[in-house]
Each structure stands twice: as C-alpha cells, then as structure tokens.
C-alpha cells in the first residue's frame, strides 16, 4: 500500500507516548505527520524525539493543516467533544480516546459533526482488536459455552494521586468509572451482542477529590441476563472477563491489557478444561491500521460511533444510579449525564 494516513495528535498524553505513537510507527498505513500541545516547546521536542514530520503551535493550527488526514484525540475527557468536533469540521477523521465524551448528549453532537462533514469517528477501544478478543467473541457466537447467562468483568488497579492528572477531577471526567469502568461495560455489551435495559451502580466517592474510587455496576440485559462490572483506582490489578454459559465458562485474565506477552483463553465445560494460547499482538497497531484502512479504502468501521453512543447510554445510567441510589432504566437515562457527585 503506497498511500498512508497522515496522523495528527492533540497533546502529549502518556497514552500517546506509550501506545499510539509506537502503533503508528509500526503500522503499515500510518505516518506521524503532526503534533500540537499546550506547551509549544514540548510539542517541538516530541516531534524531534519520535519522528513527526512537523510540530504545530496550537491545536487549531494542527487540525487546520491540509496535510493532516486524521486526528488522534487523547485529551482529558472534558475536551473530547470540543476538539473532536473542531477537527471534524475541519474535514479530519477522528479516533477519539475512550470514553468518547462526558455523556450521551455530547456523543450525539460528535456523531452529528461526523455525518455533516462526511468523516469517520471511532472510539479508541483497542482491546476489541486483539486476536484474543476476536477469538473470544467467535467462540461465544458459535455456542462454545452454550448461551451466556452472566458476565463478570473487572478493570482495577492502584492509581497514585497526582494533582496534575485530570483523572482526579470530576469536572474533567475523572474517576474510575469513566477511566476504566467503560471497558467492562463495553465488553459486556460485546459478549451479549445486545444493549442493557437497566443499570444499578454503587460507588465509593473520594472525599478529597469527589471522584469515584471504586464503582460496582450491575447491568440487566434482555432475557434475564446480567453483567457485573467493577472498576477501581484502589484495588489489586485486574483486567478480566468471566463469561458464564449454560454449558461452560470462558475466562480471560488480560481482557483489556494484553500488551507485550502471550495470552490465553480458558474454557471449562464440566470437568474438562481447555486452554487456547493466543500469541502476543499489538492491539493499538491493529486498531490504528483498521481505522487507516477505513480512511484510505472507504471500508466500514467495525465499531462505528453509534457503538460509543450505546456505551455512553449505559455509563450515563450508572452515574444516575449512583446519584439516586436506584436502578435506572437506560432508555430513560440517555438524556442525562455527568459525574457521580
């Protein structure tokens, strides 16, 4: 493939340095074409260190650069909507970090901007592109463990307090539910192949910052199926999936964080235990290449922006449940949004 996507990156986020920049550099269809940051000198430094074609003085200058085809937006959550819409209005395709926005209202505005501009918009859930996840969903769809009746998924870790990190500020989209809780919710929807009809959530709110430190979510799906989704900034590391079917169970111990190592899918049926090895893979590169193919070849996105909207419907319902202490019917929650405080 001779044609490549010229990527522009908004900001010097840690996820960009650790994951997205290496993904583009290792991809078959991407080029690091431009970067901008609040600190112009830092953007210039990153451009030199990582081999960007150009550094830009401001975010606006970057998105208006005619040489840029697509924007990666890893800015704090409260800036996802504003700068993604600005980029799409400038004719740029956008790969936006998760969660797509602060609430479903914002996601709908982003989708409207993408449709009006004739550009692509996708949420950056990289885990969906790892071969272990593709194999997991294929096994579930073919009935390997029977009909899935419940899903248990957790994404938890110890997060050191840092007053410079937006994750400690509710107004900026901080807290465990936004940061890592969006993953188990997304995975539950993917496993069931359906949307939840109600959500009940409880959280421990940090008195010093107001963010949710630990959040437990119970999602009800059609047909009396349930998902328990846990997220935390103060618990031992977990990145797991347990799908329980009528004929067996399927387990992943690195559902969201299979980075530079081999993984495995564990299936139990009765007394028989089967382990399917999955070779290591760069899920960020696979996601980036998929998006690049959609841009260059006009292929459909595997996970279009409507998927992000459905995920945000569930997240909105979780926040409303935390606030009210009641289970929330999700279709009645989609107009609301915000934080747990």
Structure description:
- It is a single chain.
- The chain is α/β, with parallel strands linked by helices and 341 residues long.
- Helices cover 34% and strands 28% of the residues.
- It has nine helices and 15 strands.
- It has two domains: 5-125, 3-Layer(aba) Sandwich (Rossmann fold), CATH 3.40.50.720; 127-285 and 311-332, Dihydrodipicolinate Reductase, domain 2 (2-Layer Sandwich), CATH 3.30.360.10.
- Mean pLDDT is 96; it is low at 332-338.
- The strands form two sheets. It has a nine-stranded mixed β-sheet with strand order 14-13-12-11-7-10-9-8-15. A six-stranded parallel β-sheet has the order 3-2-1-4-5-6, with helices on both faces.
- A hairpin with a 3-residue loop joins strand 11 (234-245) and strand 12.
Key words describing this protein structure:
341 residues, alpha/beta, Rossmann fold, Dihydrodipicolinate Reductase, domain 2, 2 domains, 9-stranded mixed β-sheet, 6-stranded parallel β-sheet, 9 helices
């Amino acid at each position: 493939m001779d044609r490549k996507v010229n990527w522009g990156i908004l900001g010097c986020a840690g996820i960009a340095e650790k994951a997205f920049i290496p993904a583009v550099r290792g991809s078959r269809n991407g080029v690091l074409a431009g970067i901008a940051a609040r600190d112009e000198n830092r953007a210039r430094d990153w451009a030199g260190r990582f081999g960007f074609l150009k550094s830009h003085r401001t975010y606006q200058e970057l998105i208006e650069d005619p040489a840029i085809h697509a924007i990666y937006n890893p800015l704090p959550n409260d800036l996802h909507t504003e700068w993604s819409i600005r980029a799409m209005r400038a004719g740029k395709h956008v790969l936006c970090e998760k969660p797509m926005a602060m609430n479903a209202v914002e996601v709908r505005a982003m989708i409207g901007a993408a449709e009006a501009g004739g550009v692509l918009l996708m949420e950056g859930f990289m885990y969906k592109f790892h071969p272990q996840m593709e194999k997991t969903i294929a096994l579930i769809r073919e009935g390997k463990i029977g009909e899935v009746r419940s899903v248990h998924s957790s994404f938890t870790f110890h997060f050191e307090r840092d007053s410079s990190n937006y994750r400690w500020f509710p107004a900026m989209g901080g807290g465990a539910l936004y940061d890592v809780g969006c993953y188990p919710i997304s995975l539950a929807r993917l496993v069931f192949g359906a949307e939840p009809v109600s959500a009940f959530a409880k959280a421990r709110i940090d008195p010093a910052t107001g963010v949710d430190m630990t959040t437990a979510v119970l999602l009800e799906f059609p047909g009396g199926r349930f998902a328990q989704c846990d997220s935390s900034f103060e618990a031992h590391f977990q990145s797991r999936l347990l799908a329980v079917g009528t004929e067996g169970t399927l387990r992943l111990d690195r559902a969201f964080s299979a980075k530079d190592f081999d993984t495995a899918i564990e299936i139990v049926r009765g007394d028989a235990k089967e382990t399917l090895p999955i070779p290591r893979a760069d899920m960020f590169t696979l996601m980036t290449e998929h998006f690049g193919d959609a841009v260059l070849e006009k292929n459909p996105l595997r996970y279009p922006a409507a998927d992000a909207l459905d995920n945000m419907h569930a997240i909105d319902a979780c926040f409303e449940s935390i606030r009210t202490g009641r289970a929330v019917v999700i279709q009645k929650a989609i107009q609301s949004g915000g934080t747990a405080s």
